[in-house]
Amino acid sequence: MKALGRRIAALIAAQGPLSLAEFMTMALHDPAAGYYATRNPLGADFVTAPEISQMFGELIGLWLAQTWNDQGKPKRPLLVELGPGRGTLMADALRATKRMVEFRDTLEVVLVEASPVLRKAQAETLRDCGVAVRWAANFEPANDGRPLFLIANEFFDALPIRQFVKTERGWCERMVTLDEKDALTFALAPSPAPLMPLNRDSAPSGGVYEQNAAGEAICEQIGHAIARDGGAALVIDYGYSAPGYGETLQAVKGHAFSDVLSDPGASDLSAHVDFKALLDAARRGGAAVYGPLEQGRFLLSLGLRERAGVLSNDARARSDIATLDSVRLAVDHLVNPEQMGHLFKVLAMVPKSAPTPPGFQQC
Ligand code: SAH
User: Fold this and answer.
1) What's the pTM?
2) Candidates 56, 80, 113: which one to mutate for ligand 1, based on the most atoms within 8 Å of Cβ?
3) Looking at the chain, which terminus has fewer C-beta neighbours within 10 angstroms, N or C?
4) Ligand 1 centroid to 123 CA: how many Å?
């Protein structure tokens, strides 16, 4: 075990078992050795939609500008991105809306990013974007009435979760503790969690309930801000629509699955997103919610094929076979149900008074 693993083991030896959420927070964000704190994982460990094709960010930029237009072009919109990675999505979205002068004129971009390494990458990518950009460590809704336009791609899956397992004794929390050789291991808390989920009686014995409390709290805040000040949000991630009782926590390193506990800080930890929980939270906040809609259907209804056609024609005119191929492969990667098209889903929030946002008309 490396240094961070040893520190976590020492903490458990001194204080007792950690919840999975506490363990994930250290593994991902420990300032000295946390996964996100120390590296740029995009490309090396996993690939995200904006890194697959510029079309993804472009279509999202147009979606944001359209919802802004539909709400009567409110002044001084805040454009917030949660977990912007390399800044690629934001750069593509801003480029696609370059000619929408009214939208861009009073726009302020806020990037919510925990990782110093990725903040640097984002600053580099967005250096010439032509819009004021600032960074924040956490999502905080503005208090000055500005409408909130927000995008989060593969952010909610990265938030720490807690796991509860259904046993004969009730729902017991899965903790991270030490085995007899002082290595990290999972163990169930001996007594049931006192506040554990009501209305989950139908879960099978051994069923696992994953709770993303941070994600739910953020969605409720976003829903509240949008209901109060206007705006729109898009949450895109891999996950499930109906409550599930399977375990989805995963560790990924170098594009392959790895072990969650063996070397904390060395691999990405994430869990599938419970879209129903996020949707309920956004609704509690007061917003109208749409979705979750499969990513494939969403992108196609926003005009992915048409945009791919334009890029392909340009490439053909230049006899640029490499680009022609990459556009074709990107469309397949983004919409094919066997790739990202089905597992990835999109949730939208707008004020109750706003029209149905683009892409969700058929829902
Ligand atoms: N949206 C990007 C990157 C996804 S990776 C893309 O689609 O390419 C997850 C991103 O969320 C990274 O930028 C990571 O540093 C950030 N992140 C993860 N947990 C975070 C937290 N608790 N607070 C702020 N940012 C976080």
Assistant:
1) 0.96
2) 113
3) C
4) 15
Which value, to the nearest 10 degrees, does the dihedral of the CA atoms of residues 25, 43, 236, 127 take? Answer: 90
End-to-end CA distance of the chain: 49
Ligand 1: centre distance to CA 163 (Å)? 21
Amino acid residing at 99: R
Contact 88, 51 (CB under 8 A): yes
Ligand 1, CB cutoff 6 Å, lining residues:
36, 42, 48, 50-51, 83-85, 89, 112-115, 118, 153-155, 158-159
Domains of the chain: 38-160+211-350 (3.40.50.12710)
Cis peptide before 292 (omega within 30 of 0): yes
State pLDDT tens for residues 41-57.
988 888 999 999 999 99
**8 A C-beta contact, residue 153 and residue 48:** yes
Nearest to 55 by CA among 86, 96, 85, 109: 96
pLDDT tens digit string along 120-170? 999 999 999 999 999 999 998 888 899 999 999 999 999 999 999 999 999
CA pair distance 116, 295, nearest whole angstrom: 30
Residue carrying the six token digits 């539909």: 70
